[in-house]
Amino acid sequence: SHFPGIEIDGTSYSFPPDKTLDTWIASTPEGFRFHLKPLGILVGIQVPSASLPRPVKETVTKQKATLKDLPDQAIEYIWQRTNDMFLRFADARRLGCAIFQFPLSFKPREGQLEKVVECRRRLHPRIPMAVEFRERLWLTGTQLEHTVTFCRQHNLALIVADDLKHELYWPERERMGLDPSRPERMPMPVKVTHTDFLFARVHRREGSARLLSEKEVEEWGERVRRVDTDGMIDE
Predict the structure, then answer these.
(1) Is residue 208 predicted with pLDDT exceeding 80?
(2) Count of other CB atoms within 10 angstroms of residue 177
(3) Closest CA to 181 of 195, 166, 163
(4) Record's Pfam families (predicted)?
(5) 43 within 8 A of 4, measured Cβ to Cβ
(6) pLDDT for position 226
(7) Is the pLDDT of residue 166 over 70?
(8) Contact 79, 39 (CB under 8 A)
(9) Cα(131)–Cα(209) distance, rounded to whole angstroms?
(10) Cα(165)–Cα(145) distance, rounded to whole angstroms?
(11) CB environment 96-115: b (16+ within 10 A), e (fewer)
(12) CATH number of 5-226: 2.40.50.140, 3.20.20.410, 3.30.70.260, 3.30.470.30?
């Protein structure tokens, strides 16, 4: 009753039943939008084989799998199910965008962007695509310009995420000497790269900081007001 959209992360683990998707759609008003993630295996994440759709997991012998472990027909099946899911929302005028969140292990090196292009190629053309590179090397130094140019060439929305360093590197925070009591914000360039929209992920925090302060709300409002098609804001 308060917000015009929602991000669904559970779809990165498994495909919800069609009945569940229809219930979500039917329970929301005109103008509401769902922003959903595809299965994690499509963005290079190693996943438990048991979490894959039955026709796919029957082709896998390992307990955990990546796309490299799947035969072509299994990959085709996943993409077909992925497009069917997104188009279900699009047909009902409830789709915002597809969120492709590439993990920390997805670092800038030769051949990586071709994988993003392949995702865009396989994703149905009616489905807007947003990309998040959790590895901030994509968004710093001279690489930032290359990343922005690439996203604009392929009409991909480059997601703005307000990660804190100890949250982003949670599994390794002790080894890296990251102190949660002294939070450090990661680089957060705001660049408009899609012709129709900008996608920002404003993260929930922990404990007493789990809600945005009035100051943070004002800062986000100012960012949105200042954004133009040249992506003028750098933070």
Answers:
(1) no
(2) 8
(3) 166
(4) DUF72
(5) no
(6) 80
(7) no
(8) no
(9) 27
(10) 22
(11) bbbbbbbeeebebeeeebee
(12) 3.20.20.410
| Separation in Å, CA 58 to CA 22, 51, 55, 63, 191 | 27, 11, 6, 11, 42
Which among 128, 103, 127, 100 has a CA at the least distance from the CA of 116? 100
Q: Give backbone dihedrals phi and psi of 144, rounded to 5 degrees, phi first.
A: -55, -45
Q: How many angstroms separate the Cα of 91 from the Cα of each of 1, 86, 198?
A: 22, 9, 22
pLDDT of 2 over the 90 cut: no
Greater pLDDT, 88 or 207: 88
Instruction: Give the tens place of pLDDT for each residue, 95-107.
Output: 999 999 999 999 9
Quick one: pLDDT at residue 131? 98
